[in-house]
Amino acid sequence: MRIPGIAVALVAASSFSAEALSRYDSRQLSCDRIQSILQTEGNAILRYTSSRNANIVKYDIFAAPRGQCNSGGRGRLSTVPAADTNSCSVLKCINIKGGGR
User: Fold this and answer.
1) Range 30-56 average pLDDT
2) Measured between alpha carbons, how far is 13 from 6 in angstroms, rounded to an integer?
3) Which of 19, 26, 58, 59 has its CA nearest to residue 42?
4) What is the largest distance, in Å, between two alpha-carbon atoms of the chain?
5) Alpha-carbon distances of 67 from 3, 80, 86, 90, rounded to whole Å
6) pLDDT by residue (tens digit) across 45-72?
């Protein structure tokens, strides 16, 4: 009876990436540090406040300039607030469905 449970666990584990993304609060880092992290790690999850409502916290995956988004996505120029500026330029990973443009 334990074999099916183990098989389900192995299948579930194999559907996730072997490499976890680091998470950072963009407001706690300088813009240079954010860009350095993305260069070093390739991509990361950044948490930041909404530009329209400072009470709303958002998060997205961002990539290095060479764009290391997943195979179903690409980088789009965006900005996040940083400790030293309100608009640090980064590439936000977006999903492209159906081979979009």
Assistant:
1) 93
2) 11
3) 19
4) 58
5) 41, 17, 22, 10
6) 999 998 889 899 999 999 987 767 876 7
